Amino acid sequence: MSDFSTARGKMVDCQVRPSDVTDLRIIDAMLALPREVFVPEDRRALAYLDLDLDVSEKGAPKRHLIKPMVIAKMIQAADIKSTDNVLVVGCATGYTAALAANLAGRVTATEGDPALAAKAAGILATLGLSQVTVVNAPASEGAPANAPYDAIILEGATEIVPDRLYRQLGAEGRLVGVFAMSTQRAVIVTHSQSDFGDRPLFDASVPVLPGLERPAAFVF
User: Fold this and answer.
1) Residue 64: alpha-carbon gap to chain centroid
2) I want to staple 88 with a disulfide (CB 3.0 to 4.6 A). Which of 19, 66, 97, 191 is the partner?
3) In terms of C-beta density within 10 A (0-12 exposed, 13-18 middle, 19 or more buried), how is residue 6 classed?
4) Hey, what's the torsion of the CAs at 143, 149, 152, 158, to 10 degrees?
5) Alpha-carbon span 151 to 106, nearest angstrom
6) Which helix (H) or strand (E) holds 193?
7) Is 33 in a helix, a strand, or coil?
8) Is 191 exposed, middle or buried (0-12, 13-18, 19+ CB in 10 A)?
C-alpha cells in the first residue's frame, strides 16, 4: 500500500497541481482516495499514470477511467458545493463518483454496463460512500428520477449534444464534459432560466462514452 500512496502523491504533484487545479478539496480527495481499488487487479500498477485507463472486463465494451488531470480540471470547473446534487454519467467503476462524493451532498452515478455498475456500487459501499447511488442506465438517458442536478459530469467524451442531460440540470446548473463534435475540447454548459449557454475550458482527448456516439452515416 505504501507504493500506491507514493504513486498517489506523485499523481497529484506531477499531473494535477501543474494543470492549474487549485481547489484544495479536490487535491485532498485525490490524495485520500485509493484509485487502485477502482482498477482490475492485473492493471493496478497503471492506476496513477497519466492515461485513460481501461477498466472493462475481458470481452466487454471498452470503458475507461479518464486521465486524472482531465477529471480534476472538469470537477474544478463544475464548482461543486457541499449541498449540491451531482450526476456522474458513465461512471465505469466509480472513481469520479467517489471524488464528487467528497465534495457534494448527494451523487447519482450512471453506468450502461450492468456488471460495471454492480462493481462500482460494491466499491463505493466498501469505501463507506453511502451518499452515492449507482444506476444502470445508458449515458444518454441520465437519471431523471433524481433530478434536477446542480452539476453533471461526463466520464468520457460526447459526439452529440446530450439534450436529455441538459434537461436534467437545475436552475444555474452546470454540465462539464469533453465535446467531440469536431476537435475534442472540455466545455461547460450552464443553465440560465430557460436557456443554455456554453464556453470552452481546455483541449482534451478522452474516449467517447457508449451511447453518446455520433450516429452512423448512411452509405449508398
Assistant:
1) 10
2) 97
3) exposed
4) 50
5) 11
6) none
7) coil
8) buried
First-to-last C-alpha distance (Å) of the chain: 57
- Averaged pLDDT of the chain: 95
Query: Class assignment of domain 2-203?
Result: alpha beta
Confidence of residue 192 (pLDDT cuts 50, 70, 90): confident
pTM exceeds 0.90, yes or no: yes
CA distance 71 to 89: 12
- Report whether pLDDT(13) > 70: yes
State the DSSP code for 160. S
Residue holding cell 452515478?
109
| Predicted pLDDT at 2 | 63
What are the grid coordinates assigned to 64, written together?
Answer: 475507461
Contact 157, 66 (CB under 8 A): no
CA distance 41 to 43: 5
* The pLDDT of residue 1 is above 50: no
Q: Quote the CA–CA distance of 195 and 213 in Å, as a whole number.
A: 24
Query: Mean of the pLDDT values across residues 86-114?
Result: 97
pLDDT at 217: 61
Confirm if 171 and 194 have CB atoms less than 8 A apart.
Answer: no
Enumerate residues 6+ apart whose C-beta is below 8 A from 193: 171
The angle subtended at Cα 195 by Cα 140 and Cα 148, nearest 5°, is 50
